[in-house]
């Protein structure tokens, strides 16, 4: 007879041994109420009378704890979102929280530059298979364009057939100029001087006709403007 399954009154019976195999991303709370932060293959738990015939069911935990991914992001220049997970082999997929969390086509890099107002997040998948999603982060171009830079900079011509000059009669300093298309793909990025005597240049002559977002930022503030290339 099988003492684990064929027990009957008056016949020999024995406790049942079993193994509970678990793989966790980060700390794991088991049936015994304990939370394990590292691998464990020695913890046991007894289900009294849980086996056939009223015998005890003794379960041994076989736990592998993998490192969880970092699901936080940083924001720079008001519209550049960057995952803080830099682990080897990690994969990224940026998503549009305001559009049913749909993946944003082609946005699988650590950083993502938003080109429109919205809510964005990143799904991070580690080399060990652990995955998590960041909180949704808001990018608001309406508030972004309240920057003082809007009132002191002149971006022309717009529309353009290629070259765009960024000039100012009242501003003097270095600014980071980043150009992205409407999918968020970075077209160019440079640090240039803008002053009454020096204009910064954006060259779209080698790019397809369409709308581009020119982000201009210094140490204090940022400004974004749509430029039409035709």
Indicate the percent of residues in helices. Answer: under 10%
Q: What is the typical, i.e. mean, pLDDT?
A: 85
CATH architecture label of the largest domain: Sandwich
Largest sheet: 5 strands, antiparallel
Q: Spans with pLDDT under 50 lasting ≥5 residues? A: 1-12
- The SSE string, one letter per element, is EEEEEEEEEEEEEHHEEEEEEE
Rg, Cα atoms, Å: 29 Å
Strand content: over 45%
**Shape label:** elongated
Number of separate structural domains: 3
* SS elements, strand count: 20
Q: What gap, in angstroms, lies between the N and C termini?
A: 85 Å
Structure, explained:
With 230 residues, the protein is mainly beta. It has three domains: 16-66, no CATH class; 73-139, Immunoglobulin-like (Sandwich); 145-229, Immunoglobulin-like (Sandwich), CATH 2.60.40. It is built from two helices and 20 strands. It has helices at 141-144, 149-152; strands at residues 16-25, 28-29, 35-36, 44-47, 57-66, 73-76, 80-83, 91-96, 102-103, 111-113, 118-125, 131-133, 137-139, 154-156, 163-167, 173-181, 186-194, 200-203, 210-217, 222-229. The strands form six sheets. Strands 8, 9, 11, 12 and 13 form a five-stranded antiparallel β-sheet that branches. Strand 19 and strand 20 form a beta hairpin. The termini are far apart. Mean pLDDT is 85; it is low at 1-12.
């Amino acid at each position: 007879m099988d003492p684990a399954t064929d027990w009957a009154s008056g016949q020999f019976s024995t406790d049942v041994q079993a193994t509970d195999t678990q793989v966790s991303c980060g700390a794991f709370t088991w049936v015994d109420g304990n939370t394990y932060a590292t691998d464990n293959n020695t913890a046991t738990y007894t289900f009294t009378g849980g086996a056939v015939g009223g015998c005890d069911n003794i379960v041994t935990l076989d736990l592998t704890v993998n490192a969880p991914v970092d699901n936080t992001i940083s924001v720079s220049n008001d519209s550049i979102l960057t995952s803080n997970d830099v682990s080897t082999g990690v994969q990224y997929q940026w998503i549009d929280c305001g559009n049913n969390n749909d993946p944003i086509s082609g946005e699988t890099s650590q950083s993502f530059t938003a080109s429109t107002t919205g809510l964005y997040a990143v799904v991070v998948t580690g080399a060990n298979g652990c995955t998590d999603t960041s909180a949704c982060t808001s990018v608001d171009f309406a508030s972004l364009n309240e920057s003082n830079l809007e009132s002191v900079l002149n971006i022309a011509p717009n529309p353009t057939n290629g070259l765009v000059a960024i000039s100012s009669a009242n501003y003097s300093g270095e600014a980071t100029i980043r150009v992205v298309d409407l999918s968020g793909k970075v077209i160019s990025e440079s640090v240039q001087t803008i002053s009454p005597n020096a204009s910064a240049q954006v060259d779209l002559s080698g790019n397809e006709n369409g709308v581009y977002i020119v982000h201009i930022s210094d140490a204090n503030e940022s400004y974004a403007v749509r430029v039409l290339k035709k």
